[in-house]
Amino acid sequence: MLFLFQDPVGDDQGLAYRYPRAALFQKAGEGYADLLALAGEEREGRLVLKVRLSRYPNPLEGPLGFSLATVALWLDTGEGGEEALLPGLSTPPDQGFEVAYILTGFGGEKRTPTGERTPARVWREGEWVAVDTGIPPGPYGYYGAVGLFDPFAPWYLRPTSPEGGPWTLGAPPGSPPVVDLLAEAPLDQVKAYQTGILKPLRPKGFALKRESLLAFALGGASLLLAFLLRRP
Q: Per the database record, which ranges form the Glucodextranase-like C-terminal domain (predicted)?
């Protein structure tokens, strides 16, 4: 395993969001949009991301064994990138995403900031939902969010409205259409909702590798300089 980010249990309420009132959602209970973890693995040279939700009710009979949640993942893989993640939610400056993945109980999509969409291979591994990103592992930044599945919405995320409704989330104006954000500390999620800025999570292993390479390069340069200075 390359990394494991754990998200607090039971924080799938946004900022006091109200879930849709339709019986479909009321009968499903709680926890089906509660993000618990994001993990990364390398398989055959490609990055596989795995998401864990608290529960997987499947009233709509999705082939992947769940049907009420939509998971969105954005990866910061290089310089620049798109900073707008969703309406009401952005990245910090200069930490935008270059590729995104949408996971539902009916399949997956890979998206780019230019609007390109291609199918992504998604499957279940026990309590995890896995996606083959098609890219190699790297020192990326990761953004994640979970909302309620809507097959007609741009990101397959059920929209919000101040008054809520049978099929919409009740939330303050301008709120993002997601009920849980990938954040390891509860206060980090609260701050992200309040400011509209979600900070990326970055694996420490890759950061240590970059620092080690830098230290190695500086050490080599020092040895070379010492050798040259000692030459007659």
A: 3-191
E-strand stretches of 106-210: 107-111, 117-120, 122-125, 128-132, 141-148, 160-161, 169-170, 180-181
- 98 - beta bridge partners? none
Q: How many CB atoms lie within 10 A of CB 213?
A: 10
In angstroms, the Cα distances linking 83 to 48, 91, 181 are 23, 5, 16
Q: Among 26, 6, 58, 50, which Cα is nearest to 180's?
A: 6
User: CA distances (Å), 128 to each of 84, 103, 212, in order?
Assistant: 27, 12, 33
Between the alpha carbon of residue 71 and those of residues 99, 148, 173, 204, the distances in Å are 14, 9, 22, 23
pLDDT in tens, 26-44: 999 999 999 999 999 999 9
